[in-house]
Amino acid sequence: MDADRTPKLVGTAWGLLVLNTLGSTGAETVVPLPRSLIQMVTMGALVAAFSLALALNLRLRVHVSAFLFLLTLLLVPSVIASADLQSGFGALFRCARLALFVGTLWLLSRWWDGGPTFVRHHIRMYFLVLCTVAAGALVSPGAAMPDLYGGRLVGALWPLTPPQIGQYAAVIIGLAVLLVLGGRTDRRSAALVIVPSLVLLLLTHTRTATLGLLVGLTLAIGSLTLTSAAARRFFSWAVLCAAVAAVVFASALQEWFLRGQSEENFSNLTGRAKVWDALLAAPRTLGEKVFGMGLGDKSFDGLPIDNSWLAVYHEQGLIGVGLVAAVFVTLGGVALLRPPSLARACAIFLIGYCALASYTEAGLGDASPYLLHLTVAASLLAQPAAAAPLPVPDPPRRRVPRWARTSEVT
After folding, report:
1. What is the pLDDT of residue 410?
2. Terminal CA-CA length for the chain
């Protein structure tokens, strides 16, 4: 499918999916928003996205995708584990949400063509989210950088946590840099996205997002160095600037990275390791080990798990862990087999970022921004559908006069 023929409403549907994955918990906003109202908006956005995608794709034409097939299979352990209501009716509701989310991705897969269409949608939508964060910081600096979060930037208009903001900023910075290197956008337009997003990323003090950005860009640009002179120049200058910054600003970088934490608190990843040890030590039946406990809020004993692999193991069992691992193996394998290109580099960046962030962030087993990032990667690695051959009209039959026809001799 040609990117130019992609309906503009596809971008609207993608934006609704982004809105659905923003979540309903976070910092206190300037205007208090009831959680029930936020959940109504986010779930309404998902229903609207599915309805819009279905209206655009009434013939149900989809792109055959191993990635989406694996996400569909992920519903099996989710439903089996949630059916006994051990996690309450909310587990079945989350299963229905995941099914609707994956169904919408199937419908939108019709317009996967290996081009940057969904990359641009992704950048626009998350930049719009970051604009609300910046607006909240201007309206109420105290609410945007509260003491509860150690002075880190949060969403003051919509409840967003520092890791969420850092994730959105890092992803669109990386994609914008790659679009510039690939000549798909001009430097001025890219700077309008990169500079403010970088400022917001630094204000969030999010280590995972920062490391994910650096590692993802290193992998992506490294995949372009053999074929792109611009990528080689950028990589050389980036290494030089990083070396100088590491020497000149070493103390400031260390202070920013530690965020005032003690060595003990930093070594156990701000208390995450204690939750992980308790989760792994908890007794489980064979069924709970295989299928999980059912979809929940990614917490254990009231504390956030903050690890995608352990969250999937807790909620969807070993089957879920295997399916999520298969997603990365499939996308990574396809990316490595493709020839160097901008689409391949963007896909590698997104895959690398999600893989690194999965260690300290949850979300790979449920409807989340991480699944949207991987969906963009899958769209970049998709092969465009071969155009159907045009029907060749039959040659006109030559009319023979009756007098010229020869009769059979008997």
Report:
1. 41
2. 61
303 forms bridges with which residues in the sheet?
A: 300
Sign of CA dihedral 2, 55, 171, 191: positive
SS3 64: coil
- How far apart are the C-alpha atoms of 92 and 84, rounded to whole Å? 10
Residue 283: Cβ within 10 Å count: 5
Query: Which residue type occupies 174?
Result: G
Other Cβ atoms within 10 Å of 22 Cβ, number: 20
How confident is the model at residue 388, as a pLDDT? Answer: 43
- Residue 335: left if φ>0, alpha if ψ -120 to 50, beta else—which one? alpha
Q: In whole angstroms, what is the distance from residue 115 CA to residue 112 CA?
A: 8
> How far apart are the C-alpha atoms of 253 and 321, rounded to whole Å?
35
Which of the 8 DSSP states describes residue 300? E
Q: Which helix (H) or strand (E) holds 17?
A: helix 8-20
Which contiguous run of DSSP H or E holds residue 207?
Answer: helix 207-222
Query: Residue with structure tokens 């700077």?
Result: 191
Summarised one tens digit per residue, pLDDT across range 304-344 is: 888 999 999 999 999 999 999 999 999 999 999 999 899 99
For residue 303, the SS3 value is strand
**DSSP character for 385?**
P
- The residue type of 331 is L
Burial category of 168 from C-beta neighbours within 10 Å (exposed 0-12, middle 13-18, buried 19 and up): buried
**If phi over 0 gives left and psi between -120 and 50 gives alpha, with beta otherwise, what is residue 282?**
beta
pTM: 0.89
Q: Whole-angstrom Cα distance, residue 211 to residue 77? A: 32
Burial of 166 (0-12, 13-18, 19+ CB in 10 A): buried
Rounded CA-CA distance 236/74 in Å is 42
Counted residue by residue, the chain has a size of 410
In angstroms, the CA 127 to CA 396 distance is 59
Which residues does the chain have with pLDDT short of 50? 1-4, 386-388, 390, 408-410
